[in-house]
Amino acid sequence: MGLASSLKNLDIDLSLLEEAISDHTIAAITNDKGTIVYVNKKFCEISKFDEDELLGQNHRILKSGFHTDEFYSEMWNAIAAKETWHGEIKNRAKDGSYYWVKTTIFPLTNSNGHTHFIALRTDITSQKETEERLLNLEQKLKEQNEDLISKVENKSKELVKSERLATIGTMASRVAHDLKNPLTIMHTYAEMLTPEILSKLESKDKEKWLRMQNSIFDMNRIIEDVLDFARTTEIKKKRSSFLSILKLAMNHVKSSYGVVINLPEKDFRINCDSRKIEGVLSNIVNNAVQALDGQGEIDIEVSSDSENLIIQIKDSGPGISDENLEKIFEPMFTTKTTGTGLGLVICKSIVEQHGGNIAVSNKPTTFTITLPF
Fold first, then answer.
1. Which neighbouring-strand residues pair with 298?
2. What is the pLDDT of residues 26-63, one digit of tens each?
3. Which domain holds residue 220?
4. Which H helix or E strand runs over 112?
5. Are residues 265 and 337 in the same domain?
6. What is the pTM of this model?
7. What number of other Cβ atoms are within 10 A of residue 129's Cβ?
8. Within this chain, do residues 15 and 70 fall inside the same structural domain, yes or no?
9. Extended strands (E) in the chain
10. What are phi and psi of 367, to 5 degrees?
């Protein structure tokens, strides 16, 4: 027995049945051209269009832009072939809001051979929003997991590197200590040559003596770098004048006639270990002097924010290659023909022990040191 016969036998008013269905189902009918010829109350409620605004229109009035043209083509091809189509559609309401409907569209041909398409829909907006939130949460968890894995890998590499460096540092410290004593003796004997004795030496011998003095100086500097790297002494902070620290640092800078160093005028009081910060500044400025190769300018600028002193040391040199820029704070890395490659590593360690940060950038080459007040 069909639905129509059953309704007739039960003497049920079709208008009452339509009203009952309308309370639970979003329904619409279109003709074979896709023009809307019927919508129920539930359709108007969810779309926020009045009935007279929908009748005579195409379903494109609800298009959200979410689905592709291929999506709608496949749907239309299916129902045009008298097949039932099932799917989920994201529509846009009159007020611009979006909603999702689970949809079934099936063709219905009357006795005159005219086909109409009946669409029955269920509101699944809450379900889709929950799915979207879960997908977003899953993506965030995935990103956090990847970030955590990356951090663990980096920390593991740093730990291995630290252990190796600690071993190297211990060995280097012992070697440096062993070399320091004979080097001190060599320096003492070299200094014993009085001006009177030096004046009697031939020019070639004087040149040899000067070369020996410079070599002793370089070896001593290398040994001091190694010892500074190997030992970690406690930071002793006190309130100090930054300009006073900078002026003391400049006493250790090898000046060059063609290099102009512009110092800041404004002073700041900073809580730091003045001797160690003095060493950081002299190291970076010396590097800048060497980079200029006898000609150029170095600008030392100081500013502050609410919490930090910001020191920028800029030079007009040729700059640092991108490849070297990434390695510049790595132990043992140097572009110089002499040196240990530990100077900037020590600077970085000192700044970080103060709770600060050091970074480098190009064009112009700029070392930026941030130290908390």
1. 261, 315
2. 999 999 888 999 999 899 999 999 999 999 999 999 99
3. 126-231
4. none
5. yes
6. 0.46
7. 13
8. yes
9. 26-30, 36-39, 85-92, 98-109, 115-123, 238-241, 259-262, 269-272, 296-304, 308-315, 357-361, 365-372
10. -95, 125
